[in-house]
Amino acid sequence: MILERFKALIFDMDGTLVDSMPLHLAAWMATAQEYGFQCDAQWLYAHGGVPSRKIAAKLASQQNLTLDPQQVAATKTAHYVARIASATPFPEMMSLVERAHGHWPMAIGTGSLHANAERILEQSGLGRFIHTVVAADDVLEHKPAPDTFLQAARLLQVKAEDCLVFEDTEIGCQAALAAGMACVMVVDGVPDWSGVRYP
User: Could you tell me the keywords of this UniProt record (predicted)?
Assistant: First the structure.
């Protein structure tokens, strides 16, 4: 089995472990209405793992708008937190985490804020199995930079090349490969074991 080649597992959260991307999208749409910018669902999904303030800055630049990225991100986060109780794990990914528990150390590597990631871990039951979290406010450079996953490997005390990453976006996969880690893409909550990517 592919897992047996590795010594640790690192998971993106939104759209990978947890079906929370629709909640992020709804939060962005509500924020767009408040601030008068446009946002496309497909574009937002492609930028899963990128912190909200960076997404806000990109949107402002693309649409030639004067926006305060921090303020927009705070508004979007508030809308997301209001919906966060609806975030539930993908059944197949939850099963994978349960089976891996006790055999592989596991970490979260997410573009969400640390407090939100911890809240989802607690309410979803994933926190029983995964205790190490690296979030947007834990690193300086975000996906597609490798920093999130490299920090997770350091906290797990495992070499980067011995880590297997699970991601649902190309940006996240780029970050994993840049960290020197193999990556399994997760599509609609199901890992694609046939298409494991190696650095």
Answer: Hydrolase
Shared domain check, 93 and 75: no
pLDDT band at 45 (very low <50, low <70, confident <90, very high): confident
147 is catalytic: no
Sequence-ordered alpha helix ranges (H) in 47-132: 52-62, 69-83, 91-100, 114-124
Reported as a single tens digit per residue, the pLDDT across 98-150 is 999 999 999 999 999 999 999 999 999 999 999 999 999 999 999 999 999 99
Active-site residue, from 12, 14, 19, 147: 12
Residues in CB range of 60: below 8 A, 6 or more apart: 37, 66, 67, 69, 72
pLDDT for residue 1 is more than 80:
no
Confidence of residue 50 (pLDDT cuts 50, 70, 90): confident
What are the φ/ψ torsions at residue 130 (nearest 5 degrees)?
Answer: -120, 120
pLDDT at position 48: 81
- Identify the CATH number of the domain in which residue 45 sits: 1.10.150
Give the CA distances from residue 25 to residues 1, 54, 64, 158, 159, in Å, rounded to whole numbers and listed in that order.
35, 15, 22, 34, 35
**Domain containing residue 177:** 2-20+88-195
Cβ-Cβ contacts under 8 Å for 89 (sequence gap 6 or more):
17, 18, 19, 97, 124, 125, 126
